[in-house]
Amino acid sequence: MLISLFSLACVFLLLLFLFLFGINSKTFAIPTDRTTVLIDSWATTKLSNDIHAITSDFSGNIYFVEHNGNKIGRLSPESNAFTEWAIPTNSSGPTGLLSDPFSGNIYFVEHNGNKIGRLSPFPDTITEWAIPTKSSGPTGLAFDSSSGSLYFVENDTNKIGRLVLSTNTFTEWAVPTKSNYQGFQSIAFDSNSRDIYFVEHNGNKIGRLSPDSNIFTEWTAPTKSNDLFGVTSDFSGNIYFVEHNGNKIGRLSPDSNTFTEWTIPTNSSGPTGLAFDSSSGNLYFVENNTNRIGRLVLSTSTFTEWTIDKSLLTMYVAPSGNLYFAAENGTIGRLG
Q: Are 134 and 156 in contact (CB under 8 A)?
């Protein structure tokens, strides 16, 4: 009898816990069967129309850069609260950013200020490092957590740069092909090989830097479009990129020197940024001209597209699997 009463009490407490703490919880999943989706959206505090990059920390907070506003912003989705930090260098033009999952620090590049910046949200401090080459026009960022090094593109001087955080030292490598690395997501770090990959926008090439040996390798993309944007990698070391005018998603398999291309279903979609979702193995991208988010299921080579009634700037897939995007009217949205 005592055991029975104890069991009933446990069931009652479990139901009470679920009611109190679970009834308001929300699970967000990217839809699989709709072309238009409902979104959660937040208007940024200053209605900034210049959000060029998004990332998140280990607590699920969303960080973004306000390019013209010269600030780093943070959205806490569960409380709908915004926080902003003014960058010390005036008109620095922040672009790419990333989060260090171990320290919680946020790193960003100052395109106009020619600096690398770090925001330590706790206790609210910003540190800046001046890049040795003047007017280098830094854009994208990649992080090597094993060495604590930041890699970045020097868009205006045709170089790849590295900042070793522990010693505050820079190294710069001149890229063999004179090109242009337009786009803020133009560099990626392969944790398996510890190589750096980047796109050569005008050169129509994918480049690789092996920092330990100072060796560059370049591959010319099959479609002669001169419009490569964005770069990311998967578990196997394959490199993905978008062909903006070619309306395609491309993949380079460096070990076999082979390319694969997929044509996006919507014509003239103008793809820009892309991201690999490690939780599903799928690839997501922005269709800039048609205001859509696209998904390529690599295992089946099938596309899904979702219409967003806003002019899109960039997107980000969080480790949780939630997909966030920024629109030109100062909106941060979550697809779900």
A: no
Contact 49, 79 (CB under 8 A): no
C-alpha closest to that of 315 among 279, 282, 289, 288: 288
∠ CA(137), CA(143), CA(148), 5° rounding?
Answer: 115
Predicted confidence (pLDDT) per residue in 22-51, tens digit: 333 233 344 443 334 445 677 665 545 578
Assess contact for 191 and 216: CB atoms under 8 A.
no
Report residue 122's pLDDT band, with 50, 70 and 90 as the boundaries. confident
pTM of the model: 0.85
325 DSSP β-pair partners: 315, 333
Please state, in angstroms and rounded to a whole number, the distance separating the CA atoms of residues 277 and 245: 24
Q: How is the chain split into domains, by residue range?
A: 37-335
How far is residue 201's CA from residue 205's CA, in Å, rounded to a whole number? 7
Q: Which two tokens stand for residue 274?
A: 């892309």
Which tokens belong to 195? 């190589």
Q: Does residue 70 contact residue 58 with C-beta atoms inside 8 Å? A: no
Burial of 31 (0-12, 13-18, 19+ CB in 10 A): middle
Distance between terminal CA atoms of the chain?
48
Tell me the Ramachandran region of residue 47: left when phi exceeds 0, alpha when psi lies from -120 to 50, beta otherwise: left
Q: What is the predicted pLDDT for the residue at 4?
A: 44
Q: Give dist(CA 295, CA 277) in Å, integer.
A: 10
pLDDT score of 250 more than 90: yes
CATH of the structural domain 37-335, one choice from 3.40.50.150, 1.10.390.10, 2.130.10.10, 2.30.42.10: 2.130.10.10
DSSP assignments along 113-132, one per residue: TTEEEEEETTTTEEEEEE-S
pLDDT tens by residue, 49-80? 578 889 999 889 999 999 888 999 999 988 88
Please give the Cα distance from 143 to 310 (Å, whole number). 31
The radius of gyration of the chain from alpha carbons, rounded to an integer in Å, stands at: 21
Q: Are the CB atoms for 247 and 263 separated by under 8 Å?
A: yes
